[in-house]
Amino acid sequence: MTIVPDTGRKLGAAGVSPSARGGGSGAPLPATVTTTAAARPLQVRPPSREEDQKNQKKQETTSSGKKKGGKKKLLLVLLVVVVLGAGFYFVKLKPHPVYKSGQPVPNGKVVSIGPITANTADGRLVQVQIALQLSAVANTKQEATDAPQLTNTVISELANFTYAQLLTNAARTTLQSQLLAAFQKIMGTVDGAAQQVNAVYFTSFILQ
Questions:
Q1: What CATH code is carried by the domain that includes residue 111?
Q2: Count H helices, E strands: the chain?
Q3: Please, is 183 exposed, middle or buried when counting C-beta atoms within 10 Å of its C-beta (0-12, 13-18, 19+)?
Q4: Residues 118 and 198 in one domain
Q5: Domain count, the chain
Q6: Which of 97, 118, 186, 201 could covalently link to 155 via disulfide, CB atoms 3.0 to 4.6 Å apart?
Q7: pTM of this prediction?
Q8: Radius of gyration (C-alpha) of the chain in whole angstroms
Q9: Does residue 163 sit in helix, strand or coil?
Q10: Could you list the residue range(s) of the whole structural domain that residue 66 is in?
Q11: pLDDT one-digit tens code per residue, 41-62
Q12: Cα 60 to Cα 29, 38, 65, distances in angstroms
């Protein structure tokens, strides 16, 4: 007996012919191959020595910057406190010297009065401008307050001299002394017996 091999059919992946898998229709089905890749574990590379050094330097720089900023703020606050404290001491707490009668007082600011126009005793006109030498302890605001009274005093004193008298240096020196005494009486004393006006000067003297 002779055996003829069947070469018209091929077995599939599980030893079943394509016609058997397809329900006997005879049409071949495509083979499906599923490949599952094995999951690889996540590998974390530790930082190198150079990276560690860079990170450490960044942290040190940031920390140093914060410390410097804090020190600057602290120094600024301390400076403000010292300045305010010193100002308060010199204005409020520092003791002022007490002057006795006749004791010389250092000179301070110079204040100008005038020009002032007045009549002499014989009806002539005289115009003067005066510089007040204030003492170092004088209250300059008081001079501004007393300015009308000081001006009136100048006019009154000039009216006691004639035109001819005011042409002489002796009369002008007398007038100068009288004005100084009057101004010192008007402005008074401070810090004990310290005069507020030390001297009176004529910066302009015109007779007509």
A1: 3.30.479.30
A2: 5, 5
A3: buried
A4: yes
A5: 2
A6: 118
A7: 0.53
A8: 56
A9: helix
A10: 53-94
A11: 555 566 667 776 776 767 666 6
A12: 70, 44, 9
